[in-house]
TrEMBL record:
Superkingdom of origin organism: Bacteria
Species for this entry: Calothrix parietina FACHB-288
Family under the similarity heading: In the N-terminal section; belongs to the transposase 2 family. In the C-terminal section; belongs to the transposase 35 family.
Listed PANTHER family: RNA-GUIDED DNA ENDONUCLEASE INSQ-RELATED, TRANSPOSASE
UniProt keyword list: DNA recombination, DNA-binding, Metal-binding, Transposition, Zinc
Domain Probable transposase IS891/IS1136/IS1341 intervals: 198-303
Annotated Cas12f1-like TNB domain residues: 315-380
Domain spans labelled Transposase putative helix-turn-helix: 1-43
Record's protein name: IS200/IS605 family element transposase accessory protein TnpB
Lineage of the organism: Bacteria, Bacillati, Cyanobacteriota, Cyanophyceae, Nostocales
Length: 430
C-alpha cells in the first residue's frame, strides 16, 4: 500500500528564493527538452524522399531523442549554465521523466486505444513542484527527522506534522509543492502489507448509492445526503474578484496580489469539497461491507447544460476517494453499468420512461411508488449483487443469516431468513 501525507513546511526567505529559482530553472529545462523532442519528431516523421517543402522543415536529420539521450545531456547543461549545479541531480532527472511520461501518453495509445493530449510549453509559474526521489536513506536528497526537513542544496526547515507518520511505512519520495497559501512537502510512503478485501461469505451489509444534483447521493435504504454546492455559493464573490483583476495593470504588484487572492478562493473551494467527500466516504465505509456505485462517464455528462452543477458536485472525485478509503478498510466497492437505472422498476423490472423533471417513480405494472433516486439506488445494488454473485434480502438488511454465494443457494436453508423480504432467487442454468 502506498500513502501520501501532505505537510506544510516553513522555509525562510532565502530558502523560498532558492526553491522558486529551482522551479523556474526546471521549467526552462522542460521547455527546451520538449522543443527538442518536437523538432526531432517534425524532421523524422515521414520518409526522406517524400517530405513536403511546405509543411516539413528542411535540414540535417537529428539523432534520436528520448529520455536517455536528454538525461546524458545534463552534464553539458551544467557546464553551459552553471545555475543548474544548484539543483539536486535526481530532481532534474525526475523532471525529464515527467516529460517522457507525458510524451508517451500522447504518442502511444493505452489498452483502450485512447491517447492523452499533447504536452505543452510551460509559462512562468506553471511548474509548481519538484521531487526528491529518495528520503531518509544513504545519498538521499531529503531527510525528515523530528519535525525537521533537510533538503539538499536548500537547507533545513521545520515541518508542521499535523498527524504522525504511520509506523512500519518506508518513506519513498518527497515532493515540494508551491501552493497559493505557502509551501508543502508531500511524503509518499509504502508498506508491503495490503488489507485483504472482505470475503463474500462475510459480507453482512450492502448499500446502493445513486449520485445526483437534487441530493448529493441517495442510498437504497432511502437515506439522502444534501448537496453542498460549494462553488455555487462562492461564484458571485469570485466573479467580483476576477472583475477587479481585469482592471489591474498587467505585471504590477497589485495584479500579482489579486491573482494570489483568487487562487486562495479556488483553493478553499477545493478543500471544502474534498473534506465533504472524505467525511461522506468514511461514513459509508464505516457502516457497510459492500458499496455499489455507478460507473459514470463524467466527461460526457460535463458537456451538457448541467455542466457547472456536475463539476461542482465532483462525482468522479468522490468515487475515487470512496475507493481509496474502502481499500484501506477492506470494504468492497462495485461499479455497475448506469444504463436505465432510473427507468427500470426495482420491484418488477418493468421499464418506466420518465424525464429528469419527474422525481417520483410510479410503476403501472406492480404499483410501486417511491423516489426515483431511491429506485435507482436499489437497481444499482441489485446489479452489484448480481455481478459479485450474492443472494441478499431486498432493502432490509440480512435478517439473521449473512448472504450466501449464488452457487450455494440451492443448499441453503431458507428457513433461517424467515420474516425478511427476499428477492426471487436466480437459479444458475445447468
Amino acid at each position: 500500500m502506498i500513502l501520501t501525507y501532505c505537510y506544510r513546511i516553513l522555509p525562510n526567505a532565502a530558502q523560498i528564493a532558492l526553491m522558486s529559482n529551482t522551479l523556474e530553472l526546471l521549467r526552462r529545462h522542460w521547455n527546451y527538452a520538449f522543443g527538442q523532442r518536437l523538432d526531432a519528431l517534425h524532421r523524422s516523421r515521414c520518409q526522406i524522399d517524400r517530405c513536403s517543402i511546405v509543411s516539413e522543415p528542411i535540414g540535417e536529420i537529428p539523432q534520436r531523442v528520448n529520455y536517455y539521450t536528454q538525461q546524458a545531456d545534463l552534464k553539458q547543461t551544467k557546464i553551459l549554465f552553471p545555475d543548474y549545479k544548484n539543483i539536486w541531480a535526481e530532481s532534474q532527472q525526475i523532471n525529464l521523466q515527467r516529460l517522457n511520461q507525458a510524451w508517451e501518453r500522447w504518442l502511444i495509445p493505452d489498452a483502450s486505444g485512447k491517447r492523452g493530449g499533447r504536452p505543452r510549453f510551460k509559462k512562468p509559474g506553471e511548474l509548481r513542484s519538484f521531487v526528491y526521489p529518495r528520503v531518509n536513506c544513504p545519498k538521499a536528497g531529503a531527510n525528515l527527522k523530528d519535525g525537521i526537513l533537510k533538503l539538499s542544496k536548500i537547507g533545513e526547515m521545520p515541518v508542521i506534522l499535523h498527524r504522525p507518520l504511520p509506523e512500519g511505512f518506508v518513506l519513498k519520495t518527497c515532493t515540494i509543492v508551491c501552493k497559493a497559501d505557502g509551501w508543502y512537502c508531500c511524503i509518499a510512503m509504502q508498506d508491503n502489507s495490503v488489507p485483504q478485501l472482505l470475503p463474500l461469505d462475510e459480507v453482512k451489509s450492502a448499500i446502493g448509492v445513486d449520485v445526483g444534483l437534487k441530493e448529493f447521493l441517495t442510498t437504497s435504504d432511502g437515506d439522502t445526503v444534501a448537496i453542498p454546492q460549494i462553488y455555487r455559493q462562492t461564484q458571485h464573490h469570485l466573479a467580483r474578484q476576477q472583475r477587479q483583476l481585469a482592471r489591474q495593470q498587467k505585471g504590477s504588484r497589485r495584479q500579482a496580489k489579486k491573482k494570489n487572492h483568487i487562487a486562495r478562493i479556488h483553493q478553499r473551494i477545493e478543500r471544502q469539497r474534498k473534506d465533504f467527500h472524505h467525511k461522506t466516504a468514511h461514513k459509508l465505509v464505516k457502516n457497510f461491507d459492500l458499496i455499489a456505485v455507478e460507473d459514470l462517464n463524467i466527461k460526457g455528462l460535463a458537456k451538457t447544460r448541467l455542466s457547472k452543477s456536475i463539476l461542482d458536485a465532483a462525482w468522479g472525485a468522490f468515487i475515487n476517494i470512496l475507493e481509496a478509503v474502502a481499500v484501506k478498510r477492506g470494504v468492497r466497492v462495485v461499479k455497475v453499468n448506469p444504463h436505465s437505472t432510473s427507468q427500470d422498476c426495482s420491484g418488477c423490472g418493468h421499464k418506466v420512461p420518465k424525464s429528469l423533471s419527474v422525481r417520483l417513480h410510479h410503476c403501472p405494472k406492480c404499483g410501486l411508488l417511491m423516489d426515483r433516486d431511491e429506485n435507482a439506488a436499489v437497481n444499482i445494488l441489485n446489479r452489484a449483487i448480481s455481478e459479485v454473485g450474492l443472494i441478499l434480502p431486498a432493502r432490509g438488511g440480512f435478517g439473521v443469516a449473512p448472504p450466501v454465494k449464488r452457487e450455494a443457494f440451492l443448499e441453503f436453508d431458507c428457513s433461517q431468513l424467515s420474516g425478511s423480504r427476499l428477492e426471487a432467487p436466480v437459479i444458475p442454468q445447468g
